[in-house]
Amino acid sequence: MAKGYKQREGIDYGEVFALVAWLETIRLMISLAAQHRWKVYQLDVKSSFLNGFLEEEIYVEQSLGYIEAENEGKLYKLKKALYGLKQAQHAWNTRIDRYFQDNGFEKCPYEHVIYVKKEVDGSILFACLYVDNLIFTSNNPTMFEDFKKYMVQEFEMTDISLMAHFLGLEVIQKEEEIFVSQSSYAKDILERFKMESCNPVLTLVENGVELRKSQVGNVDPTYFKSLVGSLRYLTCTRPDILYGVGLINRYMET
C-alpha cells in the first residue's frame, strides 16, 4: 500500500479514473449471447492495480521492518503501481487497454470498455471490462480457449468459467437459454425494509392516488432515498416495476 493521500495533483498524478461498463451494456452482451445461443464466460484479474505501469516518477519510503541497514534513508522508485496510489486504477486501465489493441481487438467507439476481435472466417469475440472483471462471449470455442490462455499468460487471473454472478445479477446459463434475475437481491430488500410478510399484488401502482408531502410524523429522508435507490437497481431485471419506481423517484426530486 502507498500513502496516496500525500500525493499532489499535477505533480504525483494526473488522471485517476478507470472506465466501467454501463449496466445496460452488460445486459446487451447477455442478450446478444442469448440470441445467438452463445455462452458468456468470466475472468477475474488478481491484484489488478499492481499490473499498471506508471508514467509519473513516484518514490516511496522503505517499509518498516524491511529497511536495509546499508541503504537507510534511501527511497524506492516505483516502476509499477501500488494499491493506495491515486492513479493506480487508471494505470491498470491503460495497461489492459493497450494490451487489447496491440493484440487485434478493436475498441467500441461508443462504449470504451467493449473490445471486439474478428477473424477472416467470420469468428468474432466480444470482451467487456469492468475494472478487474472481464466477461466475454464468442461464436467460436477455439477463440474462447485462445483468449483465456493468452490473458492468463499476460496477467494473473482466476478463470470463473461460465458467468453466474455479476454486479448483483444472477445468471443461469442452460443449453439454449440464459436467464437473468435478482432474486437474492430482492429478498435482501424485503428483509432490510422489513417487508418479508407483505402481501403480493399484481397492480404495482394504486390507481387514483395523489402523492403529497406527509403531514404526519417525521420521515427519514435517508431511509426513503435508500429504499427508492434499492428499487431502482432492481429494475435491471424487473422492468414491470419501472413505472412505479420512476413515479416515486420523480416525486422525491420535486
What does this structure look like?
- By secondary structure, the protein is α+β, with helices and mostly antiparallel strands.
- It has 2 domains: 4-181, no CATH class; 183-253, no CATH class.
- It is built from 6 helices and 11 strands.
- Strand 5 (114-118) and strand 6 form a beta hairpin.
- The radius of gyration is 24 Å and the shape is globular.
Tell me the number of helical segments per DSSP (H or I, 4 or more residues long). 6
- Strand sequence of the main sheet, in spatial order? 4-5-6-7-1-8
How many β-strands, per DSSP?
A: 11
The level of helicity is 25-40%
The overall number of domains is 2
* First and last CA, distance: 44 Å
Shape: globular
**Helix and strand composition category:** alpha+beta
Mean pLDDT: 87
Query: Quaternary status of these chains?
Result: single chain
Indicate the proportion of strand residues: 15-25%
Low-confidence stretches: none
Major sheet: size, sense and barrel closure? 6 strands, antiparallel
Gyration radius, rounded: 24 Å
Order of helices and strands: HEEEHEEEEHEEEEHHH
Summary of the model, kept short:
With 254 residues, the protein is α+β, with helices and mostly antiparallel strands. Helices cover 31% and strands 19% of the residues. The longest helix has 15 residues.
